Amino acid sequence: FASCSYLGLEIDPRVKMGIVDATSRQGASFIISRAYASSPLFERFERKLSQIMDAPVVVTPSTTLGTLSFMQTFINEGDIVVLDESVHNSVQLTAATVGKNGGHVETIPHNDLDALVRLCEQQEVSGKRLWYCIDGIYSMHGDFAPIHDIIALLDKYPNLYCYADDAHGMSMLGTNGRGYVLGEQESLHPKMVVAVSLSKAFGMGTGGAVVLPHEEWRRMLRTCGPTLIFSTPIPPPMLGAGIALADIHLSDEIEQ
Predict the structure, then answer these.
(1) I want to staple 94 with a disulfide (CB 3.0 to 4.6 A). Which of 42, 68, 117, 161 is the partner?
(2) Contact (Cβ atoms closer than 8 angstroms) between residue 208 and residue 66
(3) Strand, helix or coil for residue 107
């Protein structure tokens, strides 16, 4: 449990064989940037993850690097990044980079939606977008974000968006183990983005994924995300593991 591999999937024989098969076909590494060439295993893996999430998905080298690519691609001049004070350190670190794009960062108390509402009211006529950054399940305290209340605010305030890091909810909750944040809604809200970890309960030991509400947003992140262009991609052996793990998630077995 302390390792965060809550389901023990990394020792499943099918996962081990997925690694062996991918290694025998493609070797230990495929280090070319995905902006130029990509292992066909990526397409298979992302397609299966999209089935799990019922939304477009971009696989990233880690959850942190996925968040960094998102911040650099989607936070524009004048946008305000609103951090829950308990949001994961990776989100806080990457939010610190948005200044060069003209973005601004605010921090509000933990799960204090009244403070969020005040910011929304202040910016209602300015046209500035506010990105409220949260954890689905907070890693330091184990408590939950009030997803339904946040969705109500997304519906009320046109300029409010949400970025949720659901690293600890992935595989533990929701249909096909899609996580807490996605499990609390019938489909991903059109103004919400969810990042998940593939290295914890999912069982892959590496990687992350960003779940997006629109195919165009997926294309933008995939094409323009700097850490996707310049970082070494996940190696074939671990993609083989990911495909085997995705098949387990897409089966009834994940519930058991």
Answers:
(1) 68
(2) yes
(3) strand
